Amino acid sequence: GQTLDLSSIPTDFTLQLVSLGALDLFQTGPLAAGRNGGSRGFQRVKRGWVWNQFFVLEEYMGSDPQYVGKLHTDLDKGDSAVKYTLSGDGAGTIFTIDQITGDIHALRSLDREVKPYYTLRAQAVDIETNRPLEPESEFVIKVQDINDNEPKFLEGPYTASVPEMSPVGTYVMKVTATDADDPTYGNSARVVYSILHGQPYFSVDPKTGVIRTALPNMDREMKELYQVLIQAKDMGGQLGGLAGTTTINITLSDVNDNPPRFSKSIFHLRVPESSAVGSAVGRIKAHDLDIGKNAEVEYNIVPGDGGAMFDITTNEHNQEGIIMLKKPLDYETKKAYTFKVEASNAHLDPRFHNFGPFKDTATVKINVLDVDEPPVFSKPSYAMDVYEDTPQGTIIGAVTAQDLDAGNSPSDLDSFFDIDPVRGTISTNELLDRESIAQHNISVVATKVNNPVLTSKVAVTVHVLDINEFPPELAMPYETFVCESAKVGQVIQVISARDQDLPQAGQKFSFKSPQEGVKTKNFTIRDFGNNTAGVMTLRGGFKRRSQEIYHLPVVIEDGGLQTLSSTGTLTIRVCGCDTDGSLLTCSAEAIFLPVGLSTGALIAILVCIVILLVIVVLYVGVRRQKKKETLMTSKEDIRDNVIHYDDEGGGEEDTHAFDMGTLRNPKVIKENMFRRDVKPELGLCPRRPVASQNSADISNFISLRLQEHEGDTSAPPYDSLATYAYEGEGSVAESLSSIESVKGETEEDYDYLNEWGPRFKTLAGIFGERSESQSDVTSSITTENKH
Asked: Cadherin domain spans which residues (predicted)?
């Protein structure tokens, strides 16, 4: 039994647990001071209590509660005056105490793996007054471990892999078993590993659980999967220990330790002679016991007899060797082929080179089968040449084929040609024209005599050769001009020619003037020798006034076997040019010659013209919409106004503005004359003025008119000033008209314009010509302007 002795603990004492031993007791206290003297010394105090740690065995299976221990204090004299109390983990439910004796019991079985210890508090009190006899003390009840848990592999079953042919001791994997028992108490948690099933192939380390190979040269091709049973036992593997097991599935991974092998040494194949190039002739296979990339096989034809006719490739899916036809077969030429095929691994492992060569060889014999095939032309295509205009029936070529009865196909041969069905000769059926069709594409069909179903077709191209039948001509209609300031020997135009014929060596042209050897006075043709020629001036000082257009004939000859020639005519215009040869003015046709304005300049001129037209249209529209201002802008304006007439007389033809005869002869009075300074009213007839009897007295006439205006009730209610001007024939100032000034006009000389430079040369020419063509004209115009 275990006893915890509790005695009276002074208030100035402190309890401290310094050891977990079952019966170790320690007590510490304050230092006691001496009663006599000022200094204090150390003094040991007698302990009054006993501290202990209790243990209880786990998995107790007895019928009575398990006795744990006993609490006791020195204050307990055995007279039942002290009562013991218990509190903390499991107090009252798991643990109980006898209040009088202090005995502690466990009411049920405990499991250390669930809770390894319990912390409780004990106190001694007076049984009558419940007054604490000493402070509450804390103690621990520890569950003592027994071997009740076996080792367990938490991650099993396991899967592992190791290469085949591995040496002994090759690491496979490591397994670990856990034991829930207390590793610090006894051997309950000390585990030892052993192998129950899987020997002699594998072994396990008893302490670490590492699994290694135990047998050398394990071959995957013999056995690939191994199942190993591993045991973990506690108690150090001693008798009575608990054990757990797990399974490990170990697979041998493949290595390239096997070469490919043909199932037989000779393969016999048959192939029809009509097989197409690139078609499969047959299949052979070399078997490899390895798997994956270690089983990949490469096939090669060993150079030798018959190997050049065939090729071999590998089928990636089943590693078969596919023999392909490389060249056409002909039974009549060769009936059988024999060659060797070598199979080898694509990926070799240098560790197994000592096993021997990783390749194998087999012989392939191929027999060619005879088939009834269509005729074969001697060429894949034919090309023939024939001159145009060749007489009908001329043979231009022939086609040949083997084992056939040649014939033409009406749908493929056009009407220009015909073919001999036996000899295969092709002849013309009509006259050919290269300029219409330069090349004819026809097809010839050959049919086998004994089997009309078997036919062959070949393409025939007939080139129609050119003969010299068209004369050359100018390449384009040239628009040529010459400057008035052109110099002698100046090339003013470069010309070329064209020909509808097509010579074999290219075109060759020559140019000359028709008067070859005869000296001309204006222009000549200079042949440059490169199928071009130049128009060259023979003199200078061309004048448009003298002659504006010149015509120059040009003779052009080709270089054919039968020389043909033609004569073309160049039209040359005389134009005015700048000092640098730039065109200034010419006829309407010559303005836009190659030396004329550029496209940008033309666009700029057109834009300016459009802008001017828009401005004119806007100006006219504004003038039409503008209203005449009235004489009075406001009816309430009563200020004096001066009416100013700013009308310009229309001359002798103006018969509406004013009647000039009225001023000259006051007796002449027009009817229906309205005043111009006021707006006439409807229905109001104008007053007829009183005519003056004396037409010569203009002053009296004007006075009468003024009086009439002053008495006119239809005039505006304000003063008006009417001004009348009259110029008589006998005026000292004479006529103010400028028309009579032409009487004294003298003929002017415009020769000074020639001195102003080339830019005024054209203007000088215009006025010069006018002065030469005009005769003396005298005119007398008398104009009198009266207002």
From this structure: 73-153, 154-262, 263-377, 378-474, 474-592
269 token code pair: 């194949």
**CA–CA distance, 581 with 583 (Å, rounded to integer):** 6
What Å distances lie between residue 296 and 80, 100, 285, 292, 346, CA to CA?
97, 91, 11, 7, 6
Three-state SS at 355: helix
Which residue type occupies 503? Answer: P
From the list 300, 311, 233, the residue with the least C-alpha distance to 277 is 311
The answer to whether residues 464 and 386 touch, using CB atoms and an 8 Å cutoff, is yes
- C-alpha span between 370 and 270 (Å, rounded): 11
Question: What's the start-to-end Cα distance of the chain, in Å?
Answer: 165
Question: What span, in angstroms and rounded, lies between the C-alpha atoms of 133 and 73?
Answer: 9
For 435-444, the pLDDT digits (tens) are 788 888 888 8
**Rounded Cα distance, 376 and 456, in Å:** 7
Q: Count each helix (H run) and each strand (E run) in the chain, helices first.
A: 4, 41
Give the model's pLDDT for residue 715.
61
- As a whole number of angstroms, the distance between CA 609 and CA 360 comes to 96
Tokens linked to 231: 């045991």
Q: How far apart are CA 71 and CA 51, in angstroms?
A: 9
Averaged pLDDT, 147-159: 89
Phi-psi category of 137—alpha, beta or left, where left has phi over 0 and alpha has psi -120 to 50?
beta
pLDDT at 649: 56
pLDDT digits over 54-79, tens only? 888 888 888 888 888 888 888 888 88
Question: Going by C-beta distance under 8 Å and a sequence separation of 6 or more, which residues neighbour residue 172?
Answer: 160, 162, 202, 211, 212, 213, 248, 250
Q: How far apart are CA 19 and CA 27, in angstroms?
A: 12
* Sign of the torsion angle spanned by Cα atoms 538, 539, 540, 541: negative
pLDDT in the model for residue 705 = 77
Beta-bridge partners for 427:
395, 418
The span from the CA of 763 to the CA of 581, in Å, is 19
Position 655 confidence tier, pLDDT thresholds 50, 70, 90? low
- Cα 639 from Cα 637, distance rounded (Å): 6
Q: Which residues contact 145 (CB under 8 A, 6 or more apart)?
A: 58, 112, 181, 182, 185, 186, 188
- The residue whose two tokens read 């205009």 is 389
What is the helix (H) or strand (E) element at residue 282, kind and residue range?
A: strand 280-287
Tokens standing for residue 158? 């396991």
User: 491 Cβ partners below 8 Å, 6+ apart?
Assistant: 526, 534, 535, 536
To the nearest whole number, what is the mean pLDDT of the chain?
Answer: 76
Residue 54, phi-psi category: left (phi > 0), alpha (psi -120 to 50), beta (remainder): beta
The helix or strand, by DSSP H or E, that contains position 458, with its residue range, turns out to be: strand 455-465
Classify the C-alpha dihedral 525-528-532-536 as positive or negative: negative
Average pLDDT on 134-149 reads 86
Phi first, then psi, for residue 607 (nearest 5°) are -65, -45
What is the predicted pLDDT for the residue at 240? 80
